[in-house]
Amino acid sequence: MIETPLxxxxxxxxxxxxxxxxxxxxxxxxxxxxxxxxxxxFPVGARNxxxxxxxxLTPGYLNVDLLATPEVDVVANAEALPFRPAVFxxxxxxxxxxHVRHPDRVIREITRVLRPGGYxxxxxxxCHPFHAYPDDYRRFTPQxxxxxxxxxxxxxxxxxxxxxxxxMLVFTLEFVKQLLPWRLWRIAAHGVLGWTLWPLRYxxxxxxxxxxxxRLGNHCFLWVRKRERPHS
Length: 232
Description:
31% of the residues lie in helices and 20% in strands. By secondary structure, it is α/β, with parallel strands linked by helices. It has a seven-stranded mixed beta sheet. The protein starts with a helix and ends in a 6-residue tail after the last strand.
């Protein structure tokens, strides 16, 4: 069952065993940085929903995921959320839509549970390696992501969360590991290359200022708002 390896990954993140603590200590910095212009400062409301937050702390949000981990508040399928309509001020959908069979249904559910005037933050990968959590079905451009939006949602901010530098770094790490036949070698390569190359992630601070950053963008984002009145 695919869920079992995922549970093991999340368990290692919290484990106090010396091997897991050493692994976390030696883990290189992430090969990416977030666009500082991604969050325009929209306020967090009284009721907020976070989709797909297994293994992560989500302060101020009700955390929903398919997997029952200590951080998850409600176990549910994002395609059929167990909430009444118009109850949340803000919905966070971070790197979820590529993992579901029907992303249009997830968007409809987000729209349904979001109150009029509320905000949703959608983040999806574009140039990014395959990652099954528990499955991986598709990639998105900002334009493709907009095609999923119903008339009730209006785009108010968009861009690239992670840029070309992140793309090149994550693919370099994965490519080198693909060349190596043994797991121990792949772990060592990840550590050595990760610690050597991670400063290059700051090149994205330059790319974020360019209009063509999306040619090799890593993750894109949309901020959307539910209209107060029906769109005519």
